[in-house]
Amino acid sequence: MNFFWHRAYPLEVPFEVDLERYSTIQELLRASIAQRPDAVAFDDGKSEMTYRQFGDDASALSAYLVAAMELRPGERVALMVPNSMAYPISALALLEAGLIVVNVNPLYTPRELEHQLSDSGAKAIIIARPLLNKMRPVLDHTGVERVIAVDVETPWEPVEAPVPCDRCVRFDEALERGRGLAFVAPEIRPSATALLQYTGGTTGPSKGAVLTHANLVANVLQLEAWLSAVVRPDREVLLTALPLYHAYALTVNFLYGSLIGARLVLINNPKDLPGLVRRMQQHRITMMTGVNTLYNGLMNTPGFTEIDFSELRLVIGGGAATQAAVARRWAALTGTHIVEAYGMSETSPVLCMNPAPATDFNGSIGFPVPMTELTLRDEQNRDVPIGDAGELCVRGPQVMSGYWQAPEANAAAFTADGFFRTGDIARMDDRGRFFLVDRKKDMVLVSGFSVFPSEVESVCAEHWGVRESACVGVPDERSGEAVKVFVVKGDPTLTEQELIAHCRKRMTPYKVPRHVAFVDELPKSPVGKILRRLLRTDMSQRAWVTRAEVT
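Below the sequence we write its predicted structure tokens.
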């Protein structure tokens, strides 16, 4: 493969990776366990677990799933736990038994949980015990026959729930019983489905992206190739504040982190920013992943400037565009630039990344990682010239095989020549770097002119009185739509007139917000992405913070 952007690749990054190095995710993880059995793999703030313990516990759970629960290869098992030791143990156990992991957002309402369990056809669920009350009313409306309850704290459901009925067993009991059971791992092909990663669509219920073992292995190896200049195997301490049930942290933190023998510092509740700062003060973090809102929130939390950043080598931004104002401040406070990346649940997820280590922040999402082909297309599915904006479409070994049992969605998601339509608008410069403009569905049309919310939000972020903002379009009799911005104040004296005047100096008139609403907080997904679609509704602020979203 030879693509336009290869000429700008860092010298140490190959154009291709060996996709046959590992056939499955469990083979990749087992190789890492065998290489460093006594090293610490996970640290949850209360205890540590070595790679050997990780492998032993996963083997015990695999045996229990197959011998005691009689689950068979290809069946789906839901995994609904926050960041804890139980997540990696469960994920490896399920994959080694030939089962398909169905990641479930712990913030889901019972209605959303019922949809995902029913749509995936899950036969069992591994769930944090405090969430059992949420599952109880929908259990009989799904195909779930067995429940494994994990004794782990959740920041969202503090109520202790009893074990319901005879179909439930405790996680530690399953491990103990599994240690005495025989287990022979089935043969799994690279093309076998490893994961159903549910992702929100533009309309309707969420859909399950079908990710194979080959997809996930490819993306881990692409990351390994791209980050080889900065990452030191067996020496990294990787802060894992993003939830592992999300594609971003699943691949970049858990799978890639395991490949390089990192020590993963697990954060159960990333919204507890004072608690997160305390954990960061306790460890000399060398790597971390995050989103714009997390980095912005950390810098506004007391104690952040007291953290020792002398060992910090790699900071990855993704999930949503990192704003230039946030990136500049982060570099000034920590001495490390954020490496902006881009991906989607449907692509395992990484597609593009800036070279690492970064020496500045250029606003781009970087170059396609090895063996990834990107093209920008117009409404007629024609390639657009360099410098013009178009819908970003992708082909590569990390791209999903399709959505689970959704032929109509698949027909709309892929082009005739096999490219996946991301729904994101981007442009490419003459070096082959891609710049994300915005989500196609989030564009605001003011008198026929396109306004990209991310541009408005970036300009607002440059004002001293703005902590964070979100831009949406609202109906307008004169212009069809008007720009409205929701703002969380960083300074209580900020007024609507001051912010609009600030925007007028920096943007053409049709882009300037006509409406400003000051709010206490913005609706966010568990990963920290601001959910603009909730701002376009009449939902109350309380609904924003309790509703669960996947993307």
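Residues 538-551 have pLDDT under 50 and may be disordered.
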